[in-house]
Give the backbone structure.
Amino acid sequence: MSKKLRVATTSLAGCFGCHMSFLDIDERLFPLLDLVEFDRSPLTDIKHCGPCDIGLIEGGICNAENVHVLREFRKNCKILIAIGSCAITGGLPAQRNHLDLGSCLTEVYLTEPGLAHGHIPNDPELPLPLDKVHPLHEVVKVDYFIPGCPPSGDAIWKFLTDLIAGKTPELGHGLIKYD
Amino acid sequence: MSEMTFTLDGENVPFEPGQTVMQAALAAGHYVPHLCYHPEFKPHGSCKLCTVKINGRTAASCTMPAEAGLQVESNIEELNALRRTLVQMLFAEGNHFCPSCEKSGNCNLQALGYDLEVHTAGFRHLYPDRPVDASHPDILLDFNRCVLCELCVRASSEVDGKNIFALSGRGINKHLIVNSKSGLLVDTDIALTDKAMQVCPVGAILRKRVGFSQPIGERRYDQRPISAQALDDAPRQADASGNCAACEGTP
Ligand code: SF4
Ligand code: SF4
Ligand code: FES
């Protein structure tokens, strides 16, 4: 391959489990690094995304900052991939979606026993939570989805190598899972 | 009498009078995707996952009587794409958080999604508000995962003779209800040994205190895809009345 593909990754309302699973491709990182180089990613600590071929996003959208980062990725990445249950379904954070946000915050920070004299965090640096948690595809167009909580290193490897080889990525039995 | 057959994806499938296309296909070892069909119960014909093309027209194979000479197409991309969309709609319509579901790994909806390579629900998730019924000491009813297949309804009335479950409402408002004055499961005479406890294809009717007991890797659909295992459940020999001795419920 003449030029390396540029790849950006980030975690929004996720737990970094998908990134850990990505590292689970282990020594295959070396052949991968022959094919790709990293832009914005927790692996490089680059803070903003430049023009990229592939963007991988774990985690859904639960606050205003997530929306900005997601849009930055969509603007810069030719191919955007939602990785993991949270990016694809909202995941665990979305289990608050049928509840009122105000009462969630009140219960967690004010009325929960053991948290007496707490207060709802209001530092202006904190991004405002959204009323509901959203999967990525409800906010921007997403090109591919790698399901799993997290998807296994093998699933991520298969998906990326299919994609880099120019094939339609397929997971198949054993690699496709939602949990 | 010469054997009566129809073709399924170009292969001859023998059938006996009274069998549906689905029954004959499964009995002959051909898998047709299905969710609300269960070999032990009268077909309900609601999920449409089993839709095939018969002589060029779409029909639910679980309710369509087999006839000699039919040309049935099932495993074609056009139909699998439709099936994928149906599965996606079911995921978007309920609250299916597989990572925290006790049925995960043993769930037919999930396994169908795997088999059809459904990577995302695609649609906007509805995130409905459906409180669970945890009133019963041994049984949890989680309406968030119900796919309205009516298998519990059929099992409870036809096998258990108890009529504990019913579907109520129409269209998007359709939902499962419990036939007790309070509407709670604790006020019914449901028992763990009831057939209704064994048939739910998803994680809506659950036995308490056994969740996550099977390690990942050892659950039913970790082993082999649903397309391979559905045949294990299917009756191989059905008598003319459609009764079958070999029928076993799904675990
Ligand atoms: S019922 Fe099935 S599809 Fe729904 S959350 Fe549970 S495992 Fe997933
Ligand atoms: S509770 Fe289960 S068996 Fe009953 S209708 Fe819902 S999905 Fe079907
Ligand atoms: S299996 Fe035929 S309609 Fe559900």
User: Anything to note?
Assistant: Residues 5-96+131-164 of chain A form a domain with the Rossmann fold fold (CATH 3.40.50.700). The two ends of chain A are 35 Å apart (CA to CA). The CA atoms of residues 17 and 137 of chain A lie 20 Å apart.
